[in-house]
Design brief:
- The protein is mainly α and 340 residues long.
- It has a single domain, classed as ABC transporter involved in vitamin B12 uptake, BtuC.
- Helices cover 78% and strands 0% of the residues.
- The chain is built from 14 helices and no strands.
- It is globular and about 65 Å long.
């Protein structure tokens, strides 16, 4: 008993250390995000802009980077957390909003909404994206559950990838008929946090907060689901309700994020795996750490995009794709999914 208590204490201390380290890295990345860009700025201009002054070009540049930094933090946290939720729901190491087709489902819904129904407001974008993400999540899960063995990780991944490809083609088909919106839709599809404003943040924030709260409330339920449906039911867990509640949180997060930033891939795949290696599989720790590490990863990718192509910049969706594609191949090989 004393040995078990010592192990628990050591594990808790380790997690607190990692939490402090992640927060320190996050603060450093936020400072870098407001300081680094096409225009070089001094620390005096940064402090003046943080105080609300925009008297010089440098101060105005910093003022524009502040909402962009906040958007990167929120979007990264949302994608990292939704990826952890999806992997927990499906017990699938390959699950992520991009690979399961959820992001592309939200994209198709927005493309249809803009082209056929003329939606223009950010609030309408978010609702349409959430509906598209929810429909796609259900569709992929149903397709992946067909046949022998139910919803296996391989079948879900293949169903998600096939759905993503099909929906991407449909997005192109919808946009081709509307040359007036084609440029904007294509640029949005790349995925990025540039052009963020406090007005857009205020619109998306309630959806993200709701998604965060619902997701965090499912941590214990996901721990039960990790034991298997039968054992979870034996412990008194209402499996279908637990899975639906967790899925709702993930859909709110990735749908709202996709509506504002476009479909950003691989963050929800990379972050939960990294967090499991560092912090363990307990979702009470895994979910908040996934949110923090996701925020750090997307902010870092945004900074890297500005540095790589300076004085121009690469959208964050391109940077995460460069990082995520090799990581996906590594996971497939590590999990020995030979049928691929």
């Amino acid at each position: 008993m004393a040995t078990d208590a010592a192990l628990v204490l050591r594990s808790s201390r380790s997690r607190v250390f990692w939490l402090a380290l992640v927060l320190a890295v996050l603060v450093a990345l936020c400072a870098g995000s407001v300081a680094i860009g096409t225009r070089s700025v001094s620390w005096s201009e940064i402090w003046a802009a943080l105080a609300g002054r925009v008297d010089t070009v440098g101060q105005a540049a910093v003022a524009a980077r502040i909402p962009r930094t906040l958007m990167a933090l929120l979007a990264g946290a949302a994608l990292g957390l939704s990826g952890a939720i999806m992997q927990g729901i499906t017990r699938n190491p390959l699950a992520d909003p991009g690979i399961l087709g959820v992001n592309m489902g939200a994209s198709l819904a927005i493309a249809v909404g803009v082209a056929w129904f003329g939606i223009t407001t950010a609030n309408a974008y978010i609702w349409v994206a959430i509906l598209g993400a929810g429909f796609t999540a259900v569709f992929v899960y149903v397709i992946g559950s067909l046949g022998r063995g139910g919803a296996t990780p391989l079948k879900l991944a293949l169903a998600g990838v096939a759905t993503s490809v099909a929906f991407a083609s449909l997005v192109i088909a919808v946009v081709l008929t509307r040359g007036d919106i084609a440029g904007g839709i294509r640029q949005w599809q790349v995925g990025g946090v540039g052009g963020a404003t406090f007005a857009r943040l205020s619109v998306v924030l309630p959806f993200l907060v709701a998604g965060f709260l619902i997701s965090m409330a499912t941590a214990r339920k996901l721990n039960s689901l990790a034991l298997g449906d039968e054992l979870a039911a034996g412990l008194g867990e209402r499996v279908a309700l637990a899975r639906a509640m967790a899925a709702l949180g993930a859909i709110l997060l990735c749908g709202a994020t996709t509506a504002i930033c476009g479909p950003i891939g691989f963050v929800g795949l990379i972050v939960p795996h990294l967090c499991r290696l560092l912090f363990g599989v307990d979702h009470r720790w895994l979910l908040p750490f996934s949110a923090l590490v996701g925020a750090a990863l997307l902010t870092c990718a945004d900074i890297a995009g500005r540095l790589i192509a300076r004085p121009n910049e690469l959208d964050v969706g391109i940077v995460t794709a460069f990082i995520g594609a090799p990581f996906f191949i590594w996971i497939v090989r590590r999990q020995k999914v030979r049928e691929l």
